[in-house]
Amino acid sequence: MKKSVWLLMILVCTVLIGSGCTKEESNVLTVGMELAYPPFETKDQYGNPTGVSVDFAKAFGDYAGRPVKIENISWDGLIPALQTGKVDMVISSMTIKEERLEKIDFSKPYAKALLALLVNSRSDVNKVEDLNREGKVVAVKTGSTGQIYAEKNLTKAKVVPFPDESACVTEVTQGKADAFIYDQLTIYRNNKKNPDATKAVFIPFQDVEYWGVGVKKGNQELLDQINAFIDEFYVQNGFEAITEKYLKEEKEAFDKNGFEWFFSDLNK
Predict the structure, then answer these.
(1) What's the whole-model pTM score?
(2) For residue range 223-244, what is the model confidence (pLDDT) as tens digits?
(3) Burial class (CB within 10 angstroms; exposed 0-12, middle 13-18, buried 19+) of 226
(4) DSSP string covering 222-268
(5) Which of 51, 126, 160, 209 is the most exposed place for a label (fewest CB within 10 A)?
(6) How far is CA 77 from CA 37, 57, 86, 166, in A?
(7) Taking a C-beta distance cutoff of 8 angstroms, is the pair 73, 143 a contact?
(8) What is the average pLDDT across 168-182?
(9) pLDDT, mean of residues 85-98
(10) pLDDT for residue 13
């Protein structure tokens, strides 16, 4: 009889402990990002997630009272991860686009960016229109807005997609591609790394692009919470602190050249 009582007590305790763990785990905010775009989404020397988006995600976790778990997912797997519930949200420098809005919901914009060109230094390309000719080769990252732009506007050129930006840069530096289309920051950084092999063409040849936080369609509660947080984060100068930490040099360069900065207040 005593043995049965003890077994029952152990079973009850096990259920209670298990329930507690389940509740804690269910409160974790799982954020998907491709850790291949420094300094926004990347890894530190120990392999841990770090960067602008990581700090932004953790700040939202503090705001929402939820621990944050970062899932490193390839770019083309981010939206499917949201759709299947593998992640709660995506913060990965993702541009708000109509074709993406058909699959997921986006928060209000939290950042903005413009496309630019990394051009081979021996190429005669000096503006984006120069690429729209037979024989020109344009490297793009698969699924990026650069690819969308190139396929829509550079119909006479050969547009070649690659899985990551480093491969695109290599194509340009080796002269296999005339240009790589991507955001201004990436172009600026890779031009600085390869000053002899490349030139940067900073021409605002399209409208400003806006980045948003992606959530599963219909998750209005989380969406409302994110939108409220973005407003508060701007008021508290959260992005200024992040800029100082990760992007101080780039901010100075952008200001000098009159480029749009990522985090100028979008709500004004």
Answers:
(1) 0.77
(2) 999 999 999 999 999 999 999 9
(3) buried
(4) HHHHHHHHHHHHHHTTHHHHHHHHH-HHHHHHHHHHTPPPTTS-TT-
(5) 126
(6) 15, 19, 10, 19
(7) no
(8) 97
(9) 96
(10) 46
Q: What is the mean pLDDT of residues 51-65?
A: 97
* E-only strand ranges, the chain: 29-33, 42-43, 49-50, 68-72, 89-90, 104-106, 111-113, 115-120, 137-141, 158-162, 179-183, 198-201, 209-211, 214-216
**Percent residues over pLDDT 90 in the chain:** 75
For tokens 């506007």, the residue is 153
Contacts of residue 199, defined as CB under 8 A and 6 or more positions apart, other chains included, come to 118, 119, 120, 121, 191
Domains, in order of start, for the chain: 27-95+211-257 (3.40.190.10), 115-201 (3.40.190.10)
How many Å apart are CA 32 and CA 264, to the nearest integer? 25
> How large is the average pLDDT for residues 246-253?
92
Q: Provide the β-strand partners of residue 49.
A: 43
Give the pair of three-digit tokens for residue 13. Answer: 């305790």
CA-to-CA distance for 169 and 26, rounded, in angstroms?
41
Could you tell me where the beta strands, DSSP code E, fall in 6-74? 29-33, 42-43, 49-50, 68-72
